[in-house]
Records
---
Amino acid sequence: MSGDAHRGPAAALRPALPGETPVLAAIAEAAILGLTGEDYDEDQQEAWAAAAADEEALAARLEGQLTLVATRDGDPVGFAALKDNREIDMLYVHPEVAGEGVGSLLCEAVEKLATARGAKSLTVDASDTALGFFQQRGFVPMQRNTVQRGGVWLSNTTMEKILGAPAGPVH
Ligand SMILES: CC(C)(COP(=O)(O)OP(=O)(O)OC[C@H]1O[C@@H](n2cnc3c(N)ncnc32)[C@H](O)[C@@H]1OP(=O)(O)O)[C@@H](O)C(=O)NCCC(=O)NCCS
């Protein structure tokens, strides 16, 4: 958890605010350009970052999704989007705070929300960079995909996690 001694200061979570798309687009772009270089070449990173940072497309994509924003000292540092209560559509953490538990905090909250809303499982099309992260969280690789971003081909892996029973009493 974010309170661990080896992690940075605690992050807080809140729903995304209206009009916050540009900040989220900037986080996605920074995460892709700053964190995925060992797994994707420069052309792939740039095409993926450009697609993810397209503010109009991102606003349309986030509409209807449950989007959680992680903040440090009030500043957004990461976000996760839950689609149709069954798929993690996006998870991005700013490189400046990567490895400090923010991704885990976001993912855990999304898993809990989906569970509370009745989901039995969650899927994610995990980037090669995030594969180990999701595997550590109990997601299992199901299928390898090749997708196009701005005319460039990238690989990812559909992963699935079976969600546990809700912690609280069931009504
Ligand atoms: C994947 C990502 C969201 C992880 O966020 P993060 O805040 O760095 O993750 P955390 O600090 O919570 O990491 C939690 C654990 O996962 C591990 N982990 C993180 N990234 C990992 C990776 N790429 N491979 C293996 N393990 C990883 C950490 O070591 C940590 O382990 P620990 O608890 O034993 O110390 C972030 O690296 C990111 O934004 N990547 C670029 C964009 C991307 O690929 N997004 C996913 C699209 S599906």
Note: Residues 12-119 form a domain with the Aminopeptidase fold (CATH 3.40.630.30).
---
Amino acid sequence: MDLKTKAHLISLGSIELPESLPPSGPVSTAGPGAGEKNIFLRSGERRVRLSVVESSPLKLAELNEGEVTIIENGVEVARGALERPLLHCPRQAYITVSEKCIYDCKFCAVPKLSGGVKSKERVVDMVGRAQDTGELEAISLTSGVESSPEDEVAKVADIVRSLRRFDLPIGVSVTPAPRSSEILREAGADEIKYNVECLDPELFGRVCPGVSLKKIKMALSDAVGHFGENRVFSNVIIGLGESDRALRDGIEELAEMGVLPIIRAVYPHPLRVGEIEMSRPSPERLIELARHVRGVLDEHGLRGDVAETGCYRCTGCDLIPHRDL
Ligand code: SF4
């Protein structure tokens, strides 16, 4: 799978499976396909995640000896092998602690799914089972906000302390709170992600009502002080109608701080359709933006290929600098 093909597949974002190949593994509770089934295709050095959707223009077909092919309009687009998601994605225990949120970011399915909250014991048990497979390489925790960002950080920090026993890298993605980086670093987290989500200040208030873009940026800057460069990440969703200028400037601002942006194609989740403008970016835009990110990372001496947890390690949903290009 070359770069253009991966960009094309991400741009479409979904795939239909044959009846002979039902999706394996549990429904994901994290990431863009939360509440849905996903597949992971490994092809050469690249990996892509696609949501399983009936009537997708992409169709999966089985070949011999574990190989599969992706067909579009009768033509093969990519060929590779399916990878088994361990917990949400391959080789990681990527666990959503609170599957609910007091905020209402308009692209996110979590507040609509309004699921449960996992106890520390349950998370430790899930990681233990994942480790028993022999495939586990990293732990990533993400969480909505059950009651307040402060309480959520305290809860996740407590879980992180219990997970140190596995001696694996731990990444955390939460809504920042006062001193959250200090607290989570002390608890034993190795990497952190605070999502800016939308880098267009004009649009931000409509997309993430009740959340402050300025505070998230301040938290990211503080996080670099605690976790170091190449260990702090931030999701930037594209396809919300953001201005290209604001997006590019915002990406540069993040890199200047020592933060690695994750350029994430918006996923018009069925539970959110109609609430805001959401359109999947074209493959050309995905490649152009990924090249821009790669350029600013190089300028600031940052690397996309040293991440130990989360999306920069997984690479399933995005074009990752220094990994995909
Ligand atoms: S890239 Fe991130 S959100 Fe996407 S499947 Fe991998 S870990 Fe999940």
Note: The mean pLDDT is 94.
